[in-house]
Amino acid sequence: MILDHLSPHFGAVVHGVDLLDADAAEIRAALVQHKVLFFRDQKLDDDAQIELGRRIGELTAAHPVVGGVDAEHPEVYALDSTDNGFADVWHTDVTFMRRPPLGSILRAVTLPPTGGDTNWADAQLAYDSLSAPVRSLVDGLVAVHDGNREFGYYLAQRRGGRGNEWDGEVVTKLEPIEHPVIRVHPETGRRGIFVNPGFTSHIVGVSEFESRAILDLLYAHLTKPEHIVRHRWRAGDVAMWDNRSTSHYANRDYGTERRIMHRITLRGDVPVGVS
Question: Which positions fall inside the TauD/TfdA-like domain (predicted)?
Fold first, then answer.
């Protein structure tokens, strides 16, 4: 496995690997170290993508609320631009659940002629580059994550109030959940910013004004250019990222052209903050 590093700190294109028979332990180790990996010229379909995920970790349902791509593949979440599948807000996947995914594996299915790149931000690098007084401020904070703004209507109207099974329970409502603002990675012990504009509603125990100011500071810092890698998709591409140490954003710059991506997620754990 040969890695072509995309920045001094994170992100790599992996060469010389066929994901159909890759060493899962080696990929898992590289994922934790580099946070987001890109594999070119892969020949995966939904079945092979699911099998890959099962070799790397334990799969979740496609999404807590949204159904799978079809009845045969309940683990595959289809992001289709013709059905509001844009992901054009900075976010970390499914942080509105008690146990967000460990990671995600995304496959390009239909790409526009141009545009549709995806950007990833390194939440650990962003934390490390905060000033010491700001780190001290945010280390002990807790934030609320709420999926209702994005998926509440979908759950109620399109699923009739019955979502998918997640952590052994069928999702019938999206209760706001608290997570630490700074998450300690369970495998490396590194700290990373664990709030995102997509799902974080507010910080607990401070005023609304203070919450907004702190979140805006963290969002602006997280998405500084030096914390970001950008991937230009082409047919056969597969991306894999550690959801515990990154956020991402898909560019919505391709007009009326269609963009379809298929994603699976790996079961994670309950986020732990700074003790």
Answer: 5-265
Q: What is the DSSP letter of 156?
A: I
Does a structural domain hold residue 219? yes
Query: Position 81: which residue type?
Result: S
Nearest to 125 by CA among 217, 23, 34: 34
What would you report as the CA-atom Rg of the chain, rounded to the nearest whole angstrom? 18
The answer to whether residue 272 is domain-embedded is: no
Amino acid at 143: A
* CB-CB contact of 45 with 261 (8 Å): no
Beta bridge partners of 247: 121
Query: How many folded domains does the chain comprise?
Result: 1
Q: Give a yes or no: residue 81 inside a domain.
A: yes
The tens digit of pLDDT for each residue in 84-121 reads: 999 999 999 999 999 999 999 999 999 999 999 999 99
Provide the pLDDT for residue 14.
Answer: 97
**Which residues does the annotation mark as catalytic?**
91, 93, 248, 263
What is the value of pTM for the model shown?
0.97
